[in-house]
Amino acid sequence: MAIAVPSYADAPQGEPGAGLELAQNVATGTVVGADQVPLQRAGPSGFFPVDTDCLSFDEYGYQTWSGGFAPGVSELGDELSAIVDANNSFAAGVAICSNRAGLAVFVAERDPELIAQIDAAAAKHPSLPVSIEDVAVGAGTAEAVALRLRDADFGSTITAVGVDVHTGGLLVSVLPEAMSREADPVTAESIHSYVLAVEGLELPVALEPVPAGEDSSGLADSAA
After folding, report:
1. I want to staple 142 with a disulfide (CB 3.0 to 4.6 A). Which of 70, 103, 152, 163 is the partner?
2. 129 with 171, same domain?
3. Mean pLDDT of all residues in the chain?
4. What are 90-133's pLDDT values in tens digits?
5. Distance CA 191, CA 158 (A)
6. pTM of the predicted protein model
7. Does 116 lie in the same domain as 24?
8. What domain range is 183 assigned to?
């Protein structure tokens, strides 16, 4: 399975849909806590997350959720996740809608066969809306870049790299001191520029500080 595609089956069990949301948190970097800080972003702003009928984001740039889970969300999420996994050259991932009553699929190209598969899965659950959101690249491409970035000149300052499903770009965790140092700080813009120069790809980058020894908010299933 690609880095950013939620692994619903492995999530802890609880109320219906709870495992699905937790797995999606792992994919996108959603965290809850007093120490949360805004994601630093760079790259093509047209792919930065914005509020839609399905998705809402807080002031830090993370997706939020509210309300109870609609029946069938977990089952449909499994189906859409499998479709994304099989089409990761076109698709980046899946997210539960912020009201927990539908899902979003993130695609870099509206390939007719991919869209037909998404529509067929959604048709089995007519009460659950499924939106299709445009992103920069599919998970396969972003995952390959993430793997190479892990071993790049940024060295041990990068603690984790994964795919940001909301943008089809990269979600990068770095040591806070690397972001704040006076000489050559690691920034979202510096990583974006590096990827553009080395990979020739204009990818959105989201950067989050993660102290040594702490888990990244969103990259448990990452290239690092």
Report:
1. 163
2. no
3. 81
4. 999 999 999 999 999 999 999 999 999 999 999 999 999 999 99
5. 10
6. 0.81
7. yes
8. 139-209
